[in-house]
Design goal:
This protein has about 325 residues and is of the alpha/beta class. Helix content is about 50%, strand content about 15%. The protein has a six-stranded parallel beta sheet with strand order 5-4-3-6-7-8. A three-stranded mixed beta sheet has the order 9-10-11. Strands 1-2 form a two-stranded antiparallel sheet.
Length: about 325
């Protein structure tokens, strides 16, 4: 049996359909999101082999019960299900490509599940060169680092029905699994959700600024937004990072610009202008140029504070998402 977590209840549920023994898992990428996701799979009882170029991250995961490997390829070679959670598409390409890459090391009958927010063209190219009998599934995630820690992520999964069915009991330990369609569709859906997040994140600072500049107390404004048509994930989950003044460094402006570039590439297929997406891209680009690539994502709101000479600090117990 596999113990998983229900997204709705955050209580353990039992999957009685899983075959015994449990499949061996390989996990590469133990960073902000990958680390807590991997830790949940270890806690669920799976035999997990791990690799990361960050030696400290590798040590922490071994202390949690995983087995270390010396390379991504070595990690892949022992896995029935191999997961990658990496910051950028070029990192995926570096890890997976070539005769010495992790993809070539996978055994027939294994599945590679990419949790990265990736380029659909790269996924397609790697699928073509995958060894015979190796399946490829894309499963990018949303829900921030606190969702990764608590198993309340949403995973957008693309792949053949049988392959998705095979990995769903494993992925369910991380959150809600949504099968979006064939290969690559999970990545498209993830980028659409990010597209809407970027628009909302760029807009909420403007809304706060207009309210403050016209005499509304910020706490009152925030309460009203959450109880109205202005409500959103950004208002409920992300606004406290603005109030606290750290702007959520768990996701950088550099990664924002990476995702916006991927969204822009998808948007070229639409055949019509997308002014909301274009405006959000400009807003994040200005913040990126002003504060730097490593600055926290919600500096898109700090730019408005700085230009307007206002403060969006709000007293309260604003627990950072990476500690929640």
């Amino acid at each position: 049996m596999v113990c998983v977590m229900s997204k709705d209840t955050a209580r353990p549920v039992v999957d009685r359909t899983a075959a015994m023994p449990l499949p061996s898992i390989g996990f590469v990428g133990l960073g902000t999101m990958g680390g807590p996701m991997c830790r949940r799979l270890v806690a669920a009882g799976y035999p997990v082999t791990v690799f990361d170029i960050d030696a400290a991250a590798l040590v922490r995961m071994v202390e949690s019960g995983a087995t270390a490997s010396l390379s991504a390829s070595e990690c892949a070679a022992v896995a029935d299900v191999f997961l990658t959670s990496l910051p950028r598409p070029d990192h995926v390409e570096s890890v997976m490509s070539g005769t010495d890459g992790a993809l070539a090391a996978l055994r027939p009958g294994s599945v590679w599940v990419d949790l990265t927010t990736n380029r659909i063209e790269l996924l397609a190219a790697l699928t073509v060169v995958a060894p015979a009998g190796v399946a490829v599934v894309d499963a990018p995630v949303t829900g921030a680092v606190d969702g990764a820690r608590h198993g309340t992520l949403t995973l957008f999964v693309g792949g053949a029905d049988a392959d998705v069915a095979r990995v769903t009991p494993i992925l369910a330990n991380l959150g809600l699994v949504i099968h979006c369609g064939g290969p690559g569709t999970g990545t498209v859906v993830k980028l659409v959700t990010n597209q809407l997040w970027f628009i909302a994140a760029a807009a909420i600072g403007e809304g706060f600024a207009i309210g403050i500049a016209n005499g509304v107390e910020l706490g009152t404004l925030w309460h009203a937004i959450k109880e109205s048509v202005g409500d959103s994930f950004v208002a409920r989950h992300d606004a406290p990072s603005i109030f606290a003044g750290h702007y959520d460094p768990s996701f950088s402006l550099d990664l924002c610009m990476k995702d916006l570039g991927l969204i822009g590439a998808l948007g070229q297929k639409v055949g019509a202008s997308l002014p909301m997406t274009e405006a959000a891209t400009v807003a994040f680009r200005i913040a990126h140029e002003r504060y730097g690539a490593s600055a926290a994502e919600l500096h898109v709101a700090k730019r408005i504070e700085d230009d307007a000479g206002i403060s969006m600090r709000l007293e309260g117990e604003w627990r950072p998402p990476w500690e929640a």
